Amino acid sequence: MSVFNPFSEIQISIGSLRKYLQFINPDTYLFKHEPRLFVPKTVVMSDNEKNKDKDGVVLIYGCKKKLAFCRYRDGRFIELDGASQPYPDIIFHANMVSAVSEIGSVEVWDFSGSFPNKVMDVVPKQFLFQV
Known about the structure:
The protein has 131 residues and is mostly beta strands. 13% of the residues lie in helices and 38% in strands. It has helices at residues 17-20, 25-33, 35-38, and strands at 2-5, 10-13, 41-45, 56-61, 66-71, 77-80, 89-93, 96-100, 106-110, 117-122. The chain has a four-stranded antiparallel β-sheet. The longest helix has 9 residues, at 25-33.
């Protein structure tokens, strides 16, 4: 698998999703037949020229829309332990990855260290969607 870093304009080879992440049966089908549905969003983590060891990607993947990250230096995907999956959207800014869940909660991980650290978990008092 590879991604294009728009900041450095370089195509970067990253690890195998199948090798490092657990799949459930519907995930196996999506991965093989509908790859764009399997990984609906990927964000590039780049510190420009400051610290290339921290560059990588965070993505939403699978039927359950979980989060995983991969640093280019080691090439392996690691699942982020999110409390409010599924996640329809993620952003990266200033070494922080923010994920919004389908119920409107927001979780933030700090990627400035050697391993991401969850620094915020905000759950709304009222859910966005009433059933």
